[in-house]
């Protein structure tokens, strides 16, 4: 595991706040030259601390404002790879996690509206290996943020 120092943490914080920041802009904040920031960012990418840069999209603005979390229970022993393979064909599945407890996985679904969500849930329940689902529809998002690399107090 790569150890990141306080400068690396501050670079990552700047990129989380605005991934479009130039190396020179980041350098001004952290006290390094643009080439030094680039070397550090390249190292953080090579070591997997940074996995890439992306645009953050508002799903509601794209017409996918209805969401639910679904506990999924599979029949028998099912590997994480099999769970992933069973969920990948469903475009409404935006994230899935193996979990401890009664469920085998938690699935995050997004849909255009409640009717689309119902259709997606029916297709999910139709997956051969799935035994049972328990759905929770999201009413509002109270907090959503990226993890901060700053050390906790």
Automatic annotation (TrEMBL):
GO-annotated biological processes: response to amino acid
Keyword DNA-binding listed: yes
GO cellular component terms attached to this protein's record: cytosol
Family matches, as Pfam families: AsnC_trans_reg, HTH_AsnC-type
GO molecular function: sequence-specific DNA binding
Keyword Cell cycle: no
Keyword line: DNA-binding, Transcription, Transcription regulation
Domain HTH asnC-type: 4-65
Name this protein carries in UniProt: DNA-binding transcriptional regulator, Lrp family
């Amino acid at each position: 595991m790569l150890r990141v120092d306080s400068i690396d943490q501050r670079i990552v914080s700047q990129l989380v706040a605005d991934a479009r920041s130039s190396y020179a802009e980041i350098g001004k904040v952290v006290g390094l030259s643009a080439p030094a920031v680039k070397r550090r960012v390249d190292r953080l990418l090579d070591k997997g601390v940074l996995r890439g840069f992306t645009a953050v999209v508002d799903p509601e603005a794209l017409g996918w404002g209805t969401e639910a979390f679904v506990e999924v229970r599979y029949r028998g022993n099912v590997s994480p790879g099999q769970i992933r393979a069973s969920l990948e064909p469903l475009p409404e599945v935006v994230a899935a996690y193996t979990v401890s407890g009664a469920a085998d996985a938690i699935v995050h679904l997004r849909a255009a509206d409640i009717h689309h969500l119902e259709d997606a849930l029916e297709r999910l329940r139709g997956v051969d290996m799935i035994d049972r689902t328990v759905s929770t529809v999201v009413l509002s998002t109270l907090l959503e943020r990226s993890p901060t690399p700053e050390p906790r107090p």
